[in-house]
Amino acid sequence: MSTPDADGLLAEQLLRLTRRLHRSQKRQLESADIAITPAQSRLLRTVAHFESPPRMADLADRLEVVPRAVTSLVDGLEAGGCVRRVPDPTNRRVIRIEITDTGRTTLRALRYARRAAAEDILAPLTADQREVFGGLLSTLVDGPGPRC
């Protein structure tokens, strides 16, 4: 049975670990000379997961943000050459967002940075500890979710 103090400590440890992971990933990206924000990274991954180039509204829905937020993120990614706006082949009033080769290269660098950051964080753990930790994380990630 957990106590409020123990739960509070655990919450703080999780936040500190998350921040450390983000800092490590940021260092990895900076060393690869990739300037991308976490929000742009999420948008780029989302664009890549669509079967065909999505509309801005599709991205806003998937990311659960307002369309204006997507426009700003697309602007930044487009300036960096990671995505481009293309007309819809069936309705020229509709604009779709297409990932570019630069965007695909950036996604590979992002995946590498995430793996390298995780390796940095997990380095002190033994193989057995990593296995246990992975099982615990799976339980948390795949678990029943918040109770209302």
Explain how this protein is built.
It is a single chain. This protein is mainly alpha-helical. The chain is 67% helix and 7% strand. Helix 2 (38-49) packs across helix 4 and helix 3 packs across helix 4 (67-79). The longest helix has 28 residues, at 4-31. The chain starts with a helix and ends in a 6-residue tail after the last helix. The model has no long low-confidence stretch (mean pLDDT 89).
Regions with little confidence, pLDDT below 50 for 5+ residues? none
Report the end-to-end length measured between terminal Cα atoms.
Answer: 20 Å
User: Largest sheet, order of strands side by side?
Assistant: 1-2
Number of helices: 6
- Sheet-strand content, in percent, reads 5-15%
Secondary structure layout plus pairing:
Layout: H1 4-31, H2 38-49, H3 56-63, H4 67-79, E1 83-87, E2 95-99, H5 101-122, H6 127-142
Antiparallel strand pairs: 1-2
Helix pairs in contact: 1-5, 2-4, 2-5, 3-4
